[in-house]
């Protein structure tokens, strides 16, 4: 079989030479070759459903860069996770050597990001791309290539309908945009290809052979019938890990909870460090350990992690700082770390191939449901990490059985099982309401006919068989009518004969990315009282389903019930029981569990806003710096949205109080630090408090300061001192100092004012 070489690709010489020189790639893998033959560089829509490490991302990169260089168009790549957006943007920046300008944007859904018009390739998340389409920014008409990474997320309750909305809006714009979708795990690829009007590239080929098996009682039972005995250390994880390490490989372990990542990492680390044979490089690992301590915002979490890293092991979960995660991942790729233990929910965001992937648990806890088995799709995603091209002769994915009867069960239900078909979630009431309001408010539909056309551009329409059945179409039309009537009754839409348009309130929801159901909850809460305390406001904000809720422990139940009773009059959303029922104990714990979790989350956020340290937050709530980054971004968005909602409803006092609280919940500061944090880049909660305590309590104070004095304050140096003094003097001279007090929420912050979003390191 003739292999397609890079030098034969229909690409500009400069790009072909660049790929060979900078990436060391001269030949294509079979799935890559098929993608080329099916029109990747001819502008055809394409679905690549191939195994991990088969070069899907490279082909997407080449399609984007080629379009930029040869056609002068822009390209967008959308991914499900912010961390992935930044990781892929970092990788894409290698093409800046060819003059291709790369940008990344996530969050801040109420902004148009006009600055992106100056870039050729934009890395973003599904939500941010949908928000840009809602704003109908001009430069979107220049987009010639759209990459939808991890297209199997179309099955996700939250992100799936957003992907469908993106595709429907792109089609509504009538642009000649090539859509390229990527995934390693889609059970019904042909359905997705038909939906996207795309050519499908499906392949089971892998660059490294994958062996899948089940471990039980010292034996690995492989799917090909082979059985291999390994040294049984009395602990399956230790047995499989040490077997891998002693054979020169690395291990990636997936488990079902954060606490398990820490516990397993500690068990493995202790064994390795006490092992008689040297399998790690202690001197190099000490450097990694020190780097983690320096980068971690939580000393407790950093110390906990540093101890296991010294033994060549690390845990990896969403609570870690992005910078710490980066250190861990790079050290694993450099083969200094031998073992990484990660949560199953983070599998999509961990691009760490290893000789052996171990799935510690095939079940995980789902709030409100209990223990659930992992989908086959997730297992295949994890298994796909096994095998490092060029380093491993093979890769292994091993499930752990807890009993002999589980061996066949795991073999049948995971290893031999087909990946589930992805099914649209677009046609649920909440998703229909959210995305129909968006389509109307953004100008993609202005009549019932156009609304139905918009719906017909979704995967849900295709999978529901509405295109083939008139009776079903009529049922769908009535359903859409009901949703439109709900939006009209809520005050978000208005109808005139067949025409439909967004009200000012509906347009506000669309611009701030609030869904109609959350908006109704917010409006109900704001109307409950003319004013409340910070807990009442924060508790209202966290009613959004977007906010991760902290689990309530049985031992905490009474404490949080007491908080509820003490703040009964101030809570804008009341419990599902009366005060008398609670005080008299006339309830089951389960009736209040969800409600108390929102109270606990609110209390934690107020601790953050009251400048409780990262260590205390980690100790009291098991909330790490990575979690704080997520909560900070959410509070910036949601507190900003509810502030604008209060303004639109003419609730001045609510607007003022929420405007202040937004800054505090976003940056983790008391009110007196708002002016310093809001105006000075490089100054966040820790440095702002140090400045304030040293007597520099306003921008004017900083502008008049001696650089040597500020430079001597802990956390500052000469360079930063000069920078913030220069910033302060410029702001004062131009009259652009942002003021924000309890009696006035100040003007709406611009993108530059909320600019410190890259990492918590930037502002702590």
Summarize this entry quickly:
By secondary structure, this protein is α/β, with parallel strands linked by helices. It is 47% helix and 12% strand.
Task: Describe the 3D structure.
By secondary structure, the protein is α/β, with parallel strands linked by helices. It has five domains: 6-203, Rossmann fold (3-Layer(aba) Sandwich); 217-415, 3-Layer(aba) Sandwich (Rossmann fold); 430-504, Winged helix-like DNA-binding domain superfamily/Winged helix DNA-binding domain (Arc Repressor Mutant, subunit A), CATH 1.10.10; 514-668, Sec63 N-terminal domain-like fold, CATH 1.10.3380.20; 670-764, DNA polymerase, domain 1. The protein contains 32 helices and 19 strands. The strands form four sheets. An eight-stranded mixed beta sheet has the order 10-9-8-17-14-11-13-12, sandwiched between helices. Strands 3-4-2-5-6-1-7 form a seven-stranded parallel beta sheet, with helices on both faces. A two-stranded antiparallel sheet has the order 15-16.
């Amino acid at each position: 079989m003739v292999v397609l070489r890079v030098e034969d690709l229909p690409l500009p010489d400069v790009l072909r030479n660049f790929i060979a020189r900078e990436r060391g790639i001269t030949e294509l893998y079979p799935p890559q070759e098929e993608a080329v033959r099916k029109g990747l560089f001819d502008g055809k829509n394409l679905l690549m459903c191939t195994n991990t490490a088969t070069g899907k991302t490279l082909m997407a990169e080449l399609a984007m860069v080629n379009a930029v260089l040869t056609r002068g168009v822009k390209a967008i790549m959308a991914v499900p996770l912010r961390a992935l957006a930044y990781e892929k943007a970092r990788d894409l920046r290698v093409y800046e050597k060819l003059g291709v300008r790369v940008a990344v944007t996530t969050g801040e859904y109420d902004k148009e990001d006009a600055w992106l018009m100056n870039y050729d390739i934009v890395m973003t998340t599904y939500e941010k791309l949908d928000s840009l389409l809602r704003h109908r920014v001009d430069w979107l008409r220049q987009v010639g290539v759209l990459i939808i990474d991890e297209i199997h997320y179309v099955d996700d309750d939250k992100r799936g309908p957003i992907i469908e909305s993106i595709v429907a809006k792109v089609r509504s714009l009538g642009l000649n945009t090539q859509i390229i979708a990527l995934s390693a795990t889609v059970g019904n690829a042909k359905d997705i290809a038909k939906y996207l009007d795309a050519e499908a590239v499906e392949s089971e080929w892998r660059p490294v052979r994958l062996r899948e098996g089940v471990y039980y009682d010292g034996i690995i039972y492989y799917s090909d019938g082979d059985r291999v005995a390994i040294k049984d250390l009395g602990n399956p994880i230790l047995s499989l890990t040490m077997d891998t390490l002693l054979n020169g490989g690395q291990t990636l372990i997936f488990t079902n909870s954060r606490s398990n990542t820490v516990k397993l990492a500690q068990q493995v680390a202790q064994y390795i460090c006490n092992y008689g044979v040297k399998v790690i490089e202690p001197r190099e690992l000490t450097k990694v350990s020190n780097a983690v301590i320096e980068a971690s915002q939580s000393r407790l979490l950093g110390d906990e992690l540093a101890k296991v890293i010294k033994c060549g092991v690390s845990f990896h979960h969403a609570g870690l700082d992005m910078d710490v995660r980066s250190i861990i991942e790079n050290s694993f790729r450099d083969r200094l770390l031998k073992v990484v233990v990660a949560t199953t929910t983070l599998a999509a965001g961990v691009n760490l191939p290893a000789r052996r992937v171990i799935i510690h648990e095939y079940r995980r806890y789902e709030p409100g449901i209990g223990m659930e088995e992992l989908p086959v799709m997730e297992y295949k995603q994890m298994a796909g990490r096994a095998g490092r091209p060029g380093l491993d002769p093979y890769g292994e994915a091993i499930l752990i059985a807890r009993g002999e009867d589980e061996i066949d069960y795991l073999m049948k239900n995971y290893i031999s099982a087909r990946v589930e078909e992805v099914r649209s979630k677009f046609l649920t009431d909440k998703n229909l309401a959210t995305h129909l309001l968006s389509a109307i408010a953004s100008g993609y539909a202005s009549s019932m006919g156009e609304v139905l056309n918009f719906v017909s551009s979704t995967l849900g329409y295709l999978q529901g068989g509405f295109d083939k059945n008139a009776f079903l179409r009529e049922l769908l039309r009535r359903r859409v009518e009901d949703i439109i009537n709900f939006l009209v009754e809520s005050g978000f839409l208005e109808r005139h004969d067949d025409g439909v348009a967004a009200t000012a309130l509906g347009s506000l929801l669309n611009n701030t990315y609030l869904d109609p159901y959350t908006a109704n909850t917010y409006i109900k809460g704001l109307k409950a009282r003319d004013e409340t305390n910070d807990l009442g406001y924060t508790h209202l904000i966290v009613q959004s389903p977007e906010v991760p809720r902290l689990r309530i422990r049985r031992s905490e139940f009474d404490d949080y019930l007491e908080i509820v009773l003490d703040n009964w009059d101030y809570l804008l959303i009341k419990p599902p029981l009366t005060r008398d029922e609670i005080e008299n104990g006339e309830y089951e714990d389960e009736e209040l569990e969800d409600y108390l979790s929102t109270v606990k989350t609110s209390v934690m956020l107020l601790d953050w806003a009251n400048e409780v340290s990262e260590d205390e937050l980690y100790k009291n709530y098991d909330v790490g710096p990575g979690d704080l980054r997520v909560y900070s971004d959410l509070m910036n968005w949601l507190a900003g949205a509810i502030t604008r909602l209060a303004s639109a409803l003419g609730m001045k006092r609510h607007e003022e109080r929420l405007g202040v609280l937004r800054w505090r919940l976003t940056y983790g500061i008391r009110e007196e630090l708002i002016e310093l944090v809001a105006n000075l880049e490089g100054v966040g909660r820790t440095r702002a408090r140090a400045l304030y305590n040293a007597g520099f309590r306003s921008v004017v104070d900083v502008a008049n300061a001696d650089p040597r004095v500020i430079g001597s304050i802990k956390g500052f140096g000469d360079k930063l001192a000069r920078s913030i003094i220069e910033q302060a003097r410029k702001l004062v001279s131009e009259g652009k100092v942002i003021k924000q007090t309890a009696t006035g929420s100040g003007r709406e912050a611009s993108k530059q004012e909320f600019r410190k979003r890259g990492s918590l390191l930037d502002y702590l």
